[in-house]
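To: structure subgroup
Subject: Chain for Friday's discussion

All,

I'm putting the inputs and outputs inline so they're searchable in the archive.
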Amino acid sequence: MATSTAAATLFAASAGAQQSSSAAPELAEIVVTGSLIKRTDTETPSPVQIISAEDIKNSGYTNVSDVLRTLSANGSGTLNQGFGQAFAAGASGIALRGLSVGDTLTLIDGQRMVSYPLSDDGERSFVDVTAIPINAVEGIDVVKDGASALYGADAIAGVVNVKLKKSYVGAEFTAEAGTTQFGDGTTEHASGIWGMGDLASDGYNFYVALDWHHSDKILGANRDGAFTTTDWSSLPNGVNTRPGAIGASSLVYPDSVSGYLVNPTSGAVSGFLPGCDQASQNANKCTFAFPGTIQSPTTQINILSKFTKSLANDWTATVTGSVFDSSAQQIAATTFGHAFSNTGQEQGSIVNITFSPGKLAGTVVYPVLTLPATSPLNTTGATQNLVYSFPDVGPYQVDVDTITYRLFGDVNGKAAGWDIHGDVGVMYSSMTQKIFGELVPGAAQTALNNGTYVPGVSTNGQALFAGENSTHPSSTLGVVDLTGAHDLVEMP
């Protein structure tokens, strides 16, 4: 209580000093992200972090995604283009206060942006923050508090408002590149901005900004050392998690690139195909490298233009258009041929689970593949379950290419004591997603039955039962917005 009283007394003294001074500066009105009510800059209703263009430049980062990723309020639900096996492959999203990307609203100049065509975990819509050229950004306001009362449920965690430059005159160009000591993971970045017209003297301004990023992949197989190993068996109580190791990832039956058979009745291993045997498997000598990526290859091209015209009586009209093209690739181990221990299936069964758009993890259970008694590799005289990771099919790979269009027009001015702001906009995002290495179980079983595919010998698995799959999701958003603000009554 003493502290509160002292603070109140100090504030009162400060206020009295300002009233007695004729040179006290007049407080400017600002619009705080998360509220449409104009206030002075000492009356912020919610905690707001302001990142200026100078802050962005001094940070050394070259895209909006990296800038936002450094925020302490940006939580564990953050997405980035390097995140492997993501449902929303190829996108970056911000997640404030430990909540998800679906609870954080991302705005551009106070207006919504079209959602990424793929949802996070198949259920949460979000904005790809890489779809904004950083050289056109004037600043970023981050509301680190809920703003759902104004914006709705997608602003529960907070709001990120990326503010574009109102005008730009002149030209600027930057370029940079770098690579690793191994010659992979090369990154390149080039950007430029050019503008003309002074709003005060010419009555208009027009500028265009271009931003290009590219990064090459880094494969896990091309690195060694403690940070890339998956075999911790040399440490006290360490576990070998390499694919093919006993107990790796809690699998009932270890993965295998050579293949082995399991008795469908007893669940016991009944034979090995050439390349491994029981003793070698028990000694974890039949393991293989995980074909994943440390850094995924990505490319982004961003073009944004903005035209602003001064009208009569201090009114202004603005038209903003942008095109964003983003491509990314994710590589992971094949999801077929894995035997999970937590599926609740009967003893000895082998359950294969795959992930792809429209098929949620844990809900799609494929029948186990079998090797017929007629196969020369099956010496048991009866059909046996087959554990095989199909190395000739290659890793599970997802390629995405997304193009996003945004066109906005807005007018601002005063009329009859009202501050009026009107917007109309249309946005469209379209994706081509290609999936490689996803097996079709029925086709694979047919090829095993008729002998057109022989495990460990054939190399035509991709053509027979793991061909390219493609989808074309899209997202569309239209906006019509008209707001007016006016002082109604002065509160005591």
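Points worth raising on Friday:
Helices lie at 2-20, 53-59, 64-69, 148-151, 278-282, 441-450, 461-465.
The two ends are 24 Å apart (CA to CA).

D.
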